[in-house]
Specification:
The chain has 243 residues and is of the alpha/beta class. It is built from 11 helices and 9 strands. The strands form 2 sheets. The protein has a 6-stranded parallel sheet with strand order 5-4-3-2-1-9. Strands 6-7-8 form a 3-stranded parallel sheet, with helices on one face. Helix 7 crosses helix 8 and helix 9 packs parallel to helix 11.
Length: 243
């Protein structure tokens, strides 16, 4: 099975161009961050990108409007990474109606606990929008089984301190954890935690179904030329495709 490459872009004034770049350079899904004033699960790079997008005047409606305008030009499924507070403030039913119009494939909502997520899914199902499950490496085996068995789309495993710190790669316990999740899931299990290089991609693909890259791509979109960012995306795709 092809290993999944899921790049992330913040919903800033240039995000549509970035989405098209990812669409044309090997992405399997594209994660679009909705800028939010209190992003508790974001690291400093993505937090700063969100604040910048807010200063640019970007909003949920502007992002959705642009996707509606360009959706026929994008072949890769795209998801929103957002917070439940933002959805709640917008109005749950109105939000779902709008994102369905924009062809949004799914939602990643880090501050939505599993139990509430199961209830929230009932609003999403009529529009065939997936709620992507997050699993922390600190989760108990029982919790993992529970989340994995109800997962749809793919499972996003999030971990901090995933490397040994001595440059030799990832902890064996991480590989065991991913394997355990895979045993209980009917969807791909992808990893997202400080992945930056082709070497990281090659190592992680050996024990998972794919990778999410966030901060590194946000940095490159801000600082590098389009050609450099394109070359980077292609290098990650190539690393994931190599035997």
């Amino acid at each position: 099975m092809r290993k999944l490459f899921i790049p992330y872009v913040m919903g800033n004034k240039d995000f549509i161009d970035s989405v098209k770049l990812m669409d044309e350079n090997g992405a399997d899904y594209i994660e679009i961050g909705l800028p939010f004033s209190d992003p508790v699960a974001d690291g400093p790079t993505i937090m700063a990108a969100g604040q910048e997008a807010i200063k640019q005047g970007m909003s949920v409606n502007k992002i959705i409007d642009q996707l509606i305008e360009h959706k026929d030009e994008i072949n890769t499924p795209y998801l929103f990474m957002t917070y439940y507070n933002l959805i709640d403030a917008y109005g749950v039913d109105a939000f779902i109606e709008r994102i369905a119009e924009a062809n949004v494939y799914g939602l990643i909502i880090p501050d939505l606990p599993f139990e509430l997520g199961q209830r929230f899914k009932k609003h999403l199902q009529p529009k065939n929008i997936k709620l992507i499950s997050l699993i922390a490496m600190t989760s108990s085996d029982e919790r993992i089984k529970q989340i994995a068995e109800h997962a749809e789309g793919f499972i996003y495993t999030v971990t901090m301190n995933a490397t040994t710190g001595d440059g030799r790669g990832f902890h064996e316990s991480l590989k065991d954890k991913i394997k355990f999740i895979q045993q209980h899931a009917n969807v791909p299990v992808v990893c997202g935690f400080g992945i930056r290089t082709e070497e990281h991609a090659k190592e992680i693909k050996s024990f998972s179904d794919g990778i999410v890259i966030g901060s590194e791509i946000v940095k490159r979109l801000k600082n590098d030329s389009i050609e450099q960012t394109q070359a980077y995306l292609q290098s990650i795709r190539k690393a994931l495709d190599e035997d």
